């Protein structure tokens, strides 16, 4: 029972901390603030995590595990490569709506272990899923056959990394969410055959119509 209670409370701490880090950035959030949000003392918080760096790493791992599960669900449920890549884009759109642009920058500068975890996820999971999607799309006739899946998957991953660099896309000059979505749309259009372009347009219109009806 004690072990189960510890697991539940640790998961709660990670969930609350992740929400704070995503919305407000990491550097601006102290362990005191995490403890206050949880209505516990800082001493109690340190019983679960020895320091902030350990907590940041735990939130990164939890976030990545959810992403992996979501990627798997979308792949299994999708009818074709275009539906799949749109599903992956929807995950990104949802996450970006909650993400403070400084969060990954803070991790890169101040939490190297968590950053290495993210890079491993980016290089293996995101790049791997993108390459498989491209191969699937080529086989289905929706993506151009001359495309090298590994090259384009690597390009896509590096696009994502580039967009997180404030020296390139400053939050003062650009809306972070719009940058991500427009670059993704540009990337997808570069993959499509004429057949794929027609299906992508139809699918995009269906999604827009569904969202419009949901708001009525």
How would you characterize the overall build of this protein?
With 216 residues, the protein is an all-alpha fold. The chain has one domain: Tetracycline Repressor, domain 2 (Orthogonal Bundle). Helices cover 80% and strands 0% of the residues. The radius of gyration is 20 Å and the shape is elongated. The model has no long low-confidence stretch (mean pLDDT 89).
> In CATH's first tier, which class applies?
Mainly Alpha
* Main β-sheet description: none
Strand content: under 5%
CATH topology: Tetracycline Repressor, domain 2
Corresponding CATH superfamily: Tetracycline Repressor, domain 2
Secondary structure: helix percent: over 70%
**Shape-level CATH architecture:** Orthogonal Bundle
Number of strand segments: 0
Order of SSEs, N→C? HHHHHHHHHH
Q: Helix/strand-derived class?
A: mainly alpha
Inertia-based shape: elongated
User: Mean pLDDT across all residues, rounded?
Assistant: 89
State Rg: 20 Å
Low-confidence stretches: none
Number of helices: 10
How far from one another are the termini?
A: 47 Å
How would you summarize the topology of this molecule?
Blueprint: H1 2-24, H2 31-37, H3 42-48, H4 52-77, H5 81-98, H6 102-110, H7 112-140, H8 149-163, H9 176-191, H10 194-215
Helix pairs in contact: 1-4, 4-5, 4-7, 5-7, 5-9, 7-8, 8-9
What labels would you give this structure?
216 residues, mainly alpha, Tetracycline Repressor, domain 2, 10 helices, elongated
Describe this structure in a few short sentences.
With 216 residues, this protein is mainly α. It has helices at residues 2-24, 31-37, 42-48, 52-77, 81-98, 102-110, 112-140, 149-163, 176-191, 194-215.
